[in-house]
Design goal:
By secondary structure, this protein is α+β, with helices and mostly antiparallel strands. It has helices at 2-33, 66-75, 91-106, 122-127, 155-169, 201-208, 218-226, 291-296, 337-346, 354-371, 386-416, 425-436, 440-453, 465-474, 481-491, 503-524, 536-544, 571-578; strands spanning 37-43, 48-56, 60-63, 80-86, 112-117, 132-133, 135-140, 143-149, 170-171, 174-175, 229-233, 238-240, 248-254, 257-261, 278-283, 288-289, 303-306, 313-319, 462-464, 500-502, 533-535, 568-570. Helix content is 42%, strand content 18%.
């Protein structure tokens, strides 16, 4: 016993010494930086403070805190400021560094260059809406006027944008704001596909004769056609993936595509991670694909690839939001069983269901449990302390209950960060898809959580504000009535002003939070610096093994377009995108 006490005392003293030494060395480093930069006096509400900026590479000012960021913009009120946001460990950021330096040194127009280190500034950087690193911001008169991800290969874009701002907005070294646009006019984002401004008469007639557009009112058809884009896909590239939600409809203009589907019977131990299935169909010019998800609202039933060895495949692309309600592809009409069977057959979805996959995975998991492992704990029945045994038997149910309540609290925290589209049935349908991915044990656990919260005096099958208040207080959380009311209201996106929560609504909410935190916790394990950002390549690699659980874009596994896989992505926002949450 004494040796144990001596060990912990020794450990405590060692940690104390290291902590003190670290603070001392940090103080030395701070002292050594004095005199290497320049100072700017900023006056706060009650006191005058000194902000010191460090100049690096002659023309680039290094910023490391939100206070320095704000003070720096205040110190350059009439200038065009170009600010790079980077992470010291980011390979894409390191690749951009010499190119950014060269741009700064070549400038002769009094543009101000700076860089902001995101390390230890996670919440602040995310509050600026930065979804990918490295990122570049343009500020004019202290206001943000341009923001875009900028990896090493995007330097030409940076040069072009900077040149345009210098020519149009910088006069005698000062930034001149752009004239306000007329009300209702908004700035267009860069298109992700070519706008096909001239569609031939033959192509127009070919599209008009497609089964889904026949009989469409001429006015609706012309408006939809005017919003179509032309997307190009290199040979062998993946256009969409099985298991992902679909929001686009494609009509093939040139080239061919292959339809590939996984059956659910593949051996998970021998099947390659990137295996997309067997070829079940092939479409050529004048054919179409992508309609199944738009019609049924279900995830893609197959993957589509541009045929290898052929020329570039070009497709006329229609977003579902641009398709008029008069067309079944808009997702606003009812779908007959015959229509569903028809689109299922095109993509090899007949006979493919979730039950086979779930049964297969369940059987594998069961066998793993039967085999056990060397780490399985031994039997605890030989413990002689009966009092300890009795106490354990009493406290374990309480701890289990506490765990379930905390699970619900975490779920409500996620829902509070969402912005429901009130009355949007697609939001309810999206959650129902997430519920369908839950295991029976998860559903049973969520049922237990619901019953605990609804375990008050009423216990009427609904969660009221009073029920939620009592539950949150049981784990030490003090919420205002307004906060509690918002928690329940946002949990049901169909009704704005809802004050009670039914089990079906609660289950949908729990399913969304469950998958959101599944992704966030998984990606967080890759975030060694707790920055909130992870390499795009690492994100994609992790998602390969998640199969149909992913509810993200069917075209790209990224929340933003990135030019290389070394760029860093905001994985919390990426996780929201994967489950389709607002």
């Amino acid at each position: 016993m004494r040796s144990i006490i001596r060990y912990f005392v020794s450990l405590f003293l060692t940690l104390t010494f290291l902590s003190t030494s670290q603070g001392f060395l940090s103080g030395l480093n701070t002292c050594n930086l004095k005199g290497r930069g320049w100072r700017f006096k900023s006056i706060s509400e009650n006191e005058e403070t000194q902000t010191e900026f460090k100049i690096v590479d002659e023309k680039i000012t290094s910023l490391k805190t939100p206070d320095e960021y704000r003070a720096f913009l205040s110190a350059n009120p009439e200038k065009l400021v170009v600010m790079k946001f980077y992470a010291p460990w980011c390979r894409a950021c390191k690749g951009l560094e010499p190119k950014f330096k060269k741009i700064a040194l070549d400038d002769t127009h009094s543009v101000i260059f700076s860089q902001f280190d995101v390390q230890k500034n996670k919440d602040f950087v995310k509050s600026l809406g930065i979804l990918a690193l490295p990122n570049v911001h343009f500020y004019g008169n202290g206001d943000l006027v341009e923001s875009f991800p900028c990896g090493p290969s995007k330097v030409p874009v940076l040069r072009k944008k900077l040149g345009e701002y210098v020519v149009e907005r910088v006069k005698d070294g000062k930034y001149i704001p752009a004239e306000p646009k007329p009300e209702g006019e908004s700035k267009e984002s860069e298109p992700c596909a070519e706008r096909d401004s001239v569609i031939s008469v033959e192509t127009r007639e070919m599209i008009k004769e497609l089964v889904y557009f026949k009989g469409m009112p001429e006015e609706d058809f012309e408006e939809m056609l005017s919003k179509a884009t032309m997307s190009s896909f290199e040979p062998g590239s993946t256009i969409m993936r099985q298991g992902f939600p679909g929001k686009k409809f494609y009509v093939i203009g040139t080239g061919e595509v292959e339809v590939m589907a996984r059956t659910g019977y593949e051996d998970p131990l021998t099947t390659p991670a990137g295996f997309m299935g067997s070829v079940v169909n092939r479409f050529g010019v004048g054919n179409f694909f992508g309609e199944r998800s738009l019609i049924t609202g279900e995830p893609r039933a197959a993957s589509i690839k541009a045929v290898e060895g052929e020329d570039t495949t070009r497709c006329y692309t229609f977003k579902q939001e641009d398709i008029p309600a008069s067309c079944v592809l808009s997702g606003k009409g009812r779908v007959s069983e015959a229509e569903k069977q028809g689109v299922d057959a095109r993509y090899g979805a007949v006979g493919f269901g979730e039950l086979e996959v779930k049964d297969q995975l369940a059987s594998v998991a069961l066998e793993n449990q039967r085999r056990g492992s060397v780490n399985t704990p031994g039997d605890l029945k030989d413990i002689e302390d009966e009092e300890l045994e009795k106490a354990t038997a009493e406290i374990l149910p309480l701890l289990q209950k506490f765990k379930l309540v905390r699970m619900a609290a975490r779920c409500f925290e996620h829902i509070m960060r969402t912005t429901p589209k009130w009355g949007d049935e697609s939001e309810v349908y999206r959650r129902s898809l997430l519920v369908s991915q839950l295991t029976e044990s998860q559903k049973a656990e969520f049922r237990s959580v619901f019953e605990i919260i609804d375990g008050g005096d009423r216990e009427d099958g609904t969660i009221s504000i009073l029920d939620l208040k009592r539950t949150m207080e049981s784990i030490g959380r003090k919420n205002t009535e307004t906060e509690l009311r918002n928690m329940i209201n946002k949990a049901n996106p169909m009704i704005d002003g809802n004050t009670e929560l039914k089990y079906s609504e609660f289950l949908g909410m729990m399913a969304e939070a469950e998958f959101y935190y599944l992704f966030v916790d998984t990606f967080n394990a890759l975030d060694r610096y707790n920055s909130g950002y992870v390499r795009a390549g690492d994100l994609k690699q992790v998602l390969v093994g998640m199969g149909g659980v992913v509810f993200g874009s069917d075209e790209k596994l990224s929340v933003v377009k990135v030019d290389d896989e070394d760029m860093l992505i905001d994985y919390e926002q990426f996780s929201r995108m994967l489950i389709g949450a607002s």
